[in-house]
Amino acid sequence: MLKRCLLTYFILFLVFFIPQISFSCPQDQIQSLLEFKNLLTLNINNHYTTVITLEGLETWKPNSDCSKWQLVRCNTRFPTREVIDLNLHSLVFSGSVSSSILRPVLRISSLVTLDISSNFIQGEIPGDGFVNLTRFISLDMSDNSFNGSIPPELFSLKTLQRLDLSRNDIGGTLSGDIKELKNLQELILSENFIEGDIPPEIGKSKTQSQNSNCNMFSGSIPLSVSQLMKLETFDLQNNSLSFEIPDGIGKLVNLSTLSLSLNKLSGGIPLSIQNLTNLETLELENNNGLSGEIPTWLFGLQKLRILQLGGNKLQWNKNGSVYAQSKLTHLSLRSCGLDGTIPDWLKNQTALLFLDLSLNKLEGSFPKWLADLNIGTIILSDNKLSGSLPPSLFQSISLLVLALSRNNFSGQIPDTVGETWVMILMLSENNFSGSVPKSISKIHRLMFLDLSKNRLSGGFPRFDPESLLALLDISSNEFSGDVPAFFGSNTIMLSMKVLGLTINSLEGTIPEGISNLKSLKVLDLTENNLGGSLPSSLGNLTGMKESLPSSSSPLPFMYSFTIEIHDLAVNWKNSKQGLANRNLYLYTLIDLSKNKLFGETPYSLGNLKSLKLLNLSYNNISGLIPQSFRNLEKIEILDLSHNNLSGNIPQTQSKLSELNVLELSNNKLTGRIPESPQLDRLNDPNI
Ligand SMILES: *[C@@H]1O[C@H](CO)[C@@H](O)[C@H](O)[C@H]1NC(C)=O
Ligand SMILES: *[C@@H]1O[C@H](CO)[C@@H](O)[C@H](O)[C@H]1NC(C)=O
Ligand SMILES: *[C@@H]1O[C@H](CO)[C@@H](O)[C@H](O)[C@H]1NC(C)=O
Ligand SMILES: *[C@@H]1O[C@H](CO)[C@@H](O)[C@H](O)[C@H]1NC(C)=O
Ligand SMILES: *[C@@H]1O[C@H](CO)[C@@H](O)[C@H](O)[C@H]1NC(C)=O
Ligand SMILES: *[C@@H]1O[C@H](CO)[C@@H](O)[C@H](O)[C@H]1NC(C)=O
Ligand SMILES: *[C@@H]1O[C@H](CO)[C@@H](O)[C@H](O)[C@H]1NC(C)=O
Ligand SMILES: *[C@@H]1O[C@H](CO)[C@@H](O)[C@H](O)[C@H]1NC(C)=O
Ligand SMILES: *[C@@H]1O[C@H](CO)[C@@H](O)[C@H](O)[C@H]1NC(C)=O
Ligand SMILES: *[C@@H]1O[C@H](CO)[C@@H](O)[C@H](O)[C@H]1NC(C)=O
Ligand SMILES: *[C@@H]1O[C@H](CO)[C@@H](O)[C@H](O)[C@H]1NC(C)=O
Ligand SMILES: *[C@@H]1O[C@H](CO)[C@@H](O)[C@H](O)[C@H]1NC(C)=O
């Protein structure tokens, strides 16, 4: 009876106590995690710019079982459940936190995976913290601001399979000890400042060449990497590496991604890459020193999907013929010395999403088969292509980016243009003529439109106020008619320089409604026949009133596009400056020079505090220079020459600290020339 009783107690004990006591995570790990949480919280209290989310972390409470916490995963070991996975991705939204917050987390020696990516962490990686992590498999510290070099302790994590330190500020060279990570499958170090060259003494100095191991210990990254037999992803894009791709790379039979774009590589594409039959991505773009012939066998790699070779000194093999076994999705052969017509082996590349053949010497017409391939991005700028565009090109629902600038295309822009979903349409510096189809304003998502330097004529179609159009350049054509007032509040740049005869250019006045263009940053209407006076609503251009931080982008998601918007240019400091996408906020300007504007300068122009250039020269503007101009605190260039201005030159206060070009000649101004610390050039005004 007693025995039965005891047995019952024992069973009760097992049922009620074990799950609660024994299957809980260790106290010291609970403490470590709470310490991490406290450090984070302390950080927001100390630095008011730091913003964190407590989502998930709110479940981290003292006296509770951490195996039940969010962001934490434990194993099922008996008697304690140890923490194995921590997903601490993106807890911090802004500001900065010190890399020392990692220390308590790294004390959890049972850790198998740690994701601490996107947390605004600053400072060096606390290498000594990693010494006890003997089961570590995956470390993701990407998208922070870690600096210094990769600590040697990381190379002793023999179990590591995945190391992602991309998008940090890590410098130094990569130690040859990387070869110790025998289990590494993914090595992702892109977007850092890692340098690495094969030390020049290799193979030269006698003392070193006698040592057969010298290559392995000389910090020569590629040779060490070719010992990482399990490697599948090798991504060192956008660093400052300067080695030759070693032959040994061909030994990494499981390699599927080799990304070395945006470095300083030299040498050629080694033959051994032929043996990488699992290769899906080969990115070698923008390495100035990479040279030699592009081997045609690359297209025989059946699994290859992404091949980016542009921006090197690589040359197309003119004698070789291509029998593409691969079904590419991305192909860049920018500046690879291609000539003749657009290669027709591309015909069966039916999976293509991205094609960049710009900066070559391609001739002939835009083939209909290419138009029918349904490619998303087609970049053929800077070639010698001619003829008209196949109408079916614009009937593809896939087309997002079409860049054909600086070719010799001619004929009309097909009527079908309104049927696309294209977002970026760059047709400048060709020989297109006729009128622009009205349907162009129906393109739903059109954001960048550059039709400059063609022979287009007629009126320009009206865009909806809701249109997404951000950049419009129709300059140097033969358009006529009014300045269309309504482009939509998203428009950042309006450039309408029109060449040609008087009767064929833009006339009328600058519409009052111009201030509806809330985002406008660049208003370039130089060399037209605009009359009337300057509307005072110009002072209401919101985009020129406030200076936004240079980091903020008008179109955040545009960053995902790989093409540079180098086609757009404005008149800046007497030279043409390209409006690269990222530079948009560097230029805030109004250029209305060479028109027939008259009347007085509106006082409201002084509201445009972020304006950097104001050129009103070669008009017939009269009256005084408004006192409000002293509020143009960002102005660098002010050209009011060749007008009918009179009265005193206003004496400025210190606010015009950026002014460095002031042109007032050919007016009827009197008085002293204002002083500005930056003023280095000053045309002698005719006083
Ligand atoms: C790393 O960043 C921290 C904090 O920003 C700074 O104090 C330290 O000097 C930097 N170290 C290196 C090696 O640049
Ligand atoms: C590593 O483990 C040893 C022995 O348990 C301990 O003394 C040391 O503090 C640990 N180091 C770290 C960084 O956790
Ligand atoms: C390259 O990296 C730098 C920072 O290291 C970054 O600013 C830049 O945008 C990157 N370039 C590309 C094309 O990713
Ligand atoms: C390549 O991957 C396969 C399948 O994952 C694996 O069996 C093989 O061991 C790997 N090869 C090497 C050299 O690691
Ligand atoms: C490719 O691999 C084979 C056998 O695995 C080897 O004999 C050959 O030398 C390799 N080719 C190159 C160019 O490395
Ligand atoms: C291409 O072929 C021509 C003649 O057949 C030859 O002279 C030339 O050297 C070859 N070029 C290359 C790069 O093989
Ligand atoms: C493309 O055509 C070539 C013949 O020109 C053929 O050998 C190859 O298999 C085709 N590739 C694909 C992906 O269909
Ligand atoms: C452009 O093409 C036209 C034919 O459409 C031709 O007459 C002209 O010579 C070409 N111009 C250049 C620079 O190739
Ligand atoms: C533009 O096309 C016309 C024929 O339509 C041709 O006469 C002219 O030479 C071309 N202009 C250029 C610059 O190629
Ligand atoms: C400028 O904007 C203000 C406030 O929105 C408005 O009251 C004023 O009428 C506008 N001025 C012009 C000239 O459009
Ligand atoms: C202002 O515009 C005129 C005419 O377009 C140009 O000649 C002049 O150089 C410009 N002024 C400055 C300072 O850029
Ligand atoms: C400029 O405007 C004045 C009146 O302000 C007028 O008398 C003069 O004729 C105009 N000059 C030109 C060239 O239009």
From TrEMBL:
Does Repeat count among this protein's keywords? Answer: yes
Q: Where in the cell is it found?
A: Cell membrane; Membrane
Keyword flag Glycoprotein: yes
Residues in the signal sequence: 1-24
Q: How does it sit in the membrane?
A: Single-pass type I membrane protein
GO CC, alphabetical:
plasma membrane
Mind listing the UniProt keywords for this protein, alphabetically?
Cell membrane, Glycoprotein, Leucine-rich repeat, Membrane, Phosphoprotein, Repeat, Signal, Transmembrane, Transmembrane helix
Enumerate the SMART domains for this protein.
LRR_SD22, LRR_TYP
Pfam families listed in its UniProt record: LRR_1, LRR_8
State the family named in the UniProt similarity comment for this chain.
Answer: Belongs to the RLP family.
What is the recorded name of this protein?
Leucine-rich repeat-containing N-terminal plant-type
Report the source organism.
Arabidopsis suecica (Swedish thale-cress)
